[in-house]
Amino acid sequence: MRNSRFWQLNKPLLLLALPLLGAHLAQTGMGVVDTLMAGRLSAVDLAAVAVGTSVFAPIMLLIFGTLLATTPLVAQAAGAQQLQSLAEKVHQATWVSLVMILLGWVVMTNSYLVFNFMGVTPEVANLASGYLKALTWGLPALAFFQVLRCLCEGLNHARPVLFISLFGLVVNIPANYVLIYGKLGFPQLGAVGCGYATALSFWVMALLLSGYVHFNQRYRTFNIFSSWQAPRFKVIGHIFWIGLPIGLAIFVEASLFTTIALFIGGLGEVVVAGHQVAFNFTTLIFMVPLSLGMALTVKVGHALGSNQAALAREVAWQGVLLCSLIALLSALFMWFSAPWVVKLYSENHQVQLLAASLIQLAVLYQVSDALQVNAAGALRGYKDTRVVMVITLVAYWVLGLGGGWWLALGDNPWGPQGVKGFWYGLIIGLSFAAVLLLWRLKSTSQAAINH
Asked: Rounded to an integer, what distance in angstroms lies between the CA atom of residue 57 and that of residue 251?
């Protein structure tokens, strides 16, 4: 009976999570394609993409995370059958996105200050700065795509996002080929060409999803594009109140990984490239629990919107159980596939050996990483975001990054461990986050029932 309930609740969760996973893999695949194709040109271009991504990834996730407030708002409105309010949520989230775009533009156009501070070699820093400036052209499209994506996913309608994201990846590959290597009369731009190609893909995706929402009969009754609402600061403030802690929590987690890339920028191109290869592959694996966590946000939000708090708690915990089982399988796959996967990224034997060893270290935190991201996803469905932000800040930056720096470069009993020390810190920080977020989910879900 218990097993039947497990599948009864998790089957619709998986049906939503699978297209979310496909969309995540397609979008993450752009970074993988950039890394693979730049690495084939030179180790310097690969390092430039790695260092540039270490700045762009947390900015992108801060924008994405803040706008993720739209998903539980849409999900709860749909659960309560308040569909007439969806246009307002989309319009005001778009105004929020303008603020986030401006923030991203300022950081990305002045990235050389970050690279100089972290001691990145001048050749890599110049290329990485050019890569980021090229990417800024795609920021508006990226942000608006995320708003419309949250609308679709909050309505339990993720397939259009999947197909459009896949098409964006299809556009990215030939655009990279032309701009990186200088084909069809274009100059050879190397790492900078990756930035322009990815920006082009963002615009293609935003235009296609806008067209879908505008012309599809399912969305016409919402009047998303029939008229545009002026800023309503009370609604904008509410979106920031829910979304900014989500964005900061995701930013903190992403920056835990990417700040490591900046800290090791002075350790040589092999170390930077090896870390980037391992980070790229583990990020792909992480898309599975991340997608389940986002699906949990929608399912928990729907249950709460229809005043079924007990069902919301059951959905959340059954989803966490499913994710832990999948994480165990992922860990086994990573352990055995690491020596072969790294050969796809680089022909440099030293890069391959280092990347494989880091991937096998990542096996040790697969379950805790999956548990923490799914607990956080369920808590977003409850609109419980600020405590999550505090937990992630302490777990990732104090324990993860601080402990990792001490193990990697500090005066510790085992001696400086180099880049591996940072990955030991990840194991500590993610495990701590999993314990605290599961505890928070237990108390929040019970409080909703008692309310």
From this structure: 9
CB atoms within 10 A of CB 113: 10
Which tokens is 172 given?
């990215």
Place 1 in a pLDDT band, splitting at 50, 70 and 90.
Answer: very low
pLDDT single digits (tens) 266-285: 677 778 778 778 877 887 78
Cβ atoms 201, 30 nearer than 8 A: yes
Residue showing tokens 């708002």: 73
For 69, the 3-state DSSP assignment is: coil
pTM for the whole thing?
A: 0.75
End-to-end CA distance of the chain: 29
b/e map 4-18, b = 16+ CB within 10 Å:
eeeeebbeebbebbb
How far apart CA 418 and CA 396 sit, in angstroms, is 19
DSSP one-letter code for 230: P
Per-residue confidence band for 359, with pLDDT thresholds at 50, 70 and 90: confident
**Please, which residues have CB within 8 angstroms of residue 226's CB and are 6 or more apart in sequence?**
none
Which DSSP string corresponds to 11-66? HHHHHHHHHHHHHHHHHHHHHHHHHHHHHHH-HHHHHHHHHHHHHHHHHHHHHHHH
Q: Which helix H or strand E contains 302, and what residues bound it?
A: helix 269-305
Radius of gyration, CA atoms only, the chain: 21
CA 61 – CA 373 distance, rounded (Å): 14
Q: How far is it, in rounded angstroms, from Cα 408 to Cα 426?
A: 12
In contact, 254 and 58? CB cutoff 8 Å: yes
**Residue, of 205 and 392, whose pLDDT is higher:** 205
Would you give the DSSP letter of residue 84?
Answer: G
The Cα 163–Cα 441 span in angstroms is 33
CB 427 within 8 A of CB 396: no
Q: Whole-angstrom Cα distance, residue 13 to residue 291?
A: 10
| Cα–Cα dist 444/438, whole Å | 10
Record the tokens describing residue 428, joined without a space.
């500590």
Q: Which residue has the tokens 């302490």?
A: 394
CA distances from 165 to 1, 187, 206, 225 (A): 39, 27, 10, 22
Burial class of 172 by CB neighbour count within 10 A (0 to 12, 13 to 18, 19+): buried
